[in-house]
Specification:
single chain; 160 residues; alpha+beta; ph1033 like fold; six-stranded mixed β-sheet; 8 strands; 30% strand
Length: 160
């Protein structure tokens, strides 16, 4: 199993539409072939303008996703499948102002509420550090992925 961790900025409106709420693909006949074997899926992507194609290319099934907005991490998940959506079907169908071809599915989704400073401490970043879409360097991932998820869950319960 992979041990990559990705820090993922979100747009709340688009995120709520396709990650927080799964998409029912049975309502769409024209979806990409990469989604043929699923009826319901959570979808997210890397903005084509972000320049993070090499980061996207490093995503593997099972990698940990930590989604954040402003000063808070709001969800965790795992990478399911990555694929090139050359027709931009996903972004054109579901998202506003987010054209992209680099799409991935999200599995094991969980809502969380952990302050950015607490998650930054897990990876030895400064309290005020605000990442873009990025893969956390191997040298900063000092615990297994389930331990990282447990720590974030602990912050969520403590702040509830």
């Amino acid at each position: 199993m992979s041990a990559n961790v990705f820090l993922v900025p979100i747009d709340p409106e688009n995120f709520d539409r396709t990650v927080r709420s799964a998409v029912d693909l049975t309502e769409y006949d024209d979806h990409p072939d990469a989604l043929n074997d699923v009826d319901e899926v959570r979808l997210w992507a890397v903005d084509d303008d972000s320049g993070n194609g090499s980061t996207f290319d490093r995503m593997e099934s099972g990698d940990l996703l930590l989604f954040y907005h402003d000063d808070e991490y709001v969800a965790t998940g795992r990478v399911g499948t990555t694929f090139a959506d050359d027709d931009r079907w996903v972004s054109g169908t579901f998202w506003t102002a987010f054209p992209t071809t680099r799409v991935y599915t999200v599995t094991d989704f969980a809502s969380v509420a952990a302050p950015k400073r607490a998650v930054n401490a897990l990876f030895d970043y400064s309290k005020s550090y605000t990442p873009g879409f990025m893969r956390v360097a191997d040298s900063r991932v000092t615990a297994d992925l389930s331990s990282i998820e447990s720590a974030i869950d602990h912050y969520t319960k403590r702040n509830a």
